[in-house]
Amino acid sequence: MDGKSEAIIPPPLPTPTQPQVKAFQCPGCGGALTIRGLEQTESIACGSCGSIIDITDENFRIISTFQSRIKHQTLIPLGSRGKLRGETFEVIGYLRRKINVEGIDYEWSEYLLFNPYKGFRWLSEYNGHWNYIKSTSNTPKPQSSDSLSTVYYLGQPFPHFQTAAAQVSYVLGEFYWRVQVGESSQVSDYISPPLILSRECTEKEVVWSIGEYIEPKTLWEGFQLKTPIPPKIGIAPSQPSPLVAQARGIWKILLIFFLVALFIQALFLLFSANKLVYQDQMAFHLADKEKARVTEVFELTGRPSNVVIKSKATVDNSWIYLNLALINEETGNAYDFGREISYYHGYDGGESWSEGGTSDEAVLSSVPPGRYYLRIEPDAAASSINYSIQVYRDVPSWSFFFMAMGGLAVYPLFYWWRRRTFEYYRWSESDHPMKALSSFVSKADEDD
Fold first, then answer.
1. Are 104 and 214 contained in the same domain?
2. 395, 416, 434: which is the final residue of a domain?
3. Which domain holds residue 323?
4. Residues 250-293: pLDDT tens digits?
5. Predicted TM-score (pTM) of this structure
6. I need a surface site. Which of 143, 255, 301, 445 has the fewest CB within 10 A?
7. What is the per-residue burial (b if ≥16 Cβ within 10 Å, else e) of 5-18?
8. Both 293 and 428 in a single domain?
């Protein structure tokens, strides 16, 4: 040793060996068959004659045979190898299963994948939608002991989607159990997109599996398939809604627009004069019913802006009508308008009621600056009513802000409607279909 440290080079990791395969002839037709799962395979289905062979029997005993009028073409050929989630898997088995709902058969495909180090995985396909499936590491827990309406897996809720009796209708390749055409199990699906939990119950066992929605493009790239990708039909139970990912961006944009509208409104409030330019107390007498009254001249300054005329009257189970005109002293231009103030109250059936009020407000928009006066022609049924008039210049209005808020509310409502429509079509084929929005409208009309 010379006192210098020496780098320790670790030995190279062993290179994983290629999965071994075993070939033999089908005892039914003599066709060549290949076993890829080796010790873990218990049966293999011959695609030529339909024989299902027990691999665990040294004489390769035929368990059963089936005749299929349709020879299904697999989208991913048996023996194909591809990468999923960073692991290499080989397709070793293919089967078709079906359920019957109201006399109609619904079929889907399942592909058995094998990796000697990771074990078995499944790919299921229905109407162009795919799920990547494996056995659960924990048993899901029901929401309550007597109900499976919702189950929890790793703390996440999965509402029940559908329960049906599923039957194997076609098999090809090898499997880790003695599969037979016609074997059935009760399958219950629970969803939390993009995840799906499946509970398969037979006379012998209950098996849980967890699946995740996977885009077909990912599979075609992983298995390097050259065939066209079949189009998707409808909405799959575990298909994630593309609208969910947009929610955060939508609320962010809405918040920005809200803050902008609030800032603009704050500027209106800050720079509006909101100035009282005239006020007076007046009285109406029935004897002076036909007489018009003219106020003193008052000045409206600044830019063209609104004018707010506020009026109050001592009406009590009575009314007064004010025929008003705001007149420019120099040009003679007049803004004519009328306002009624009425207030009634009483008791009916032991309960009090009231209608109307003792005050009113009129808004004239964009009145130019200048010298103005009011002409007032009052009318009432009572013999005498006191009333007051106040005139304000450049009063801040909230109408812009509320119009902006109304406009902003349109898109969230549209977004909610699209998201609900997506979920409506997802759940339409479940055991718990959603009600259409039209049904709520019809019910409201019936209640009216």
1. yes
2. 395
3. 273-395
4. 889 889 999 999 999 898 888 888 999 999 999 999 887 778 99
5. 0.68
6. 445
7. eeeeeeeeeeeeee
8. no
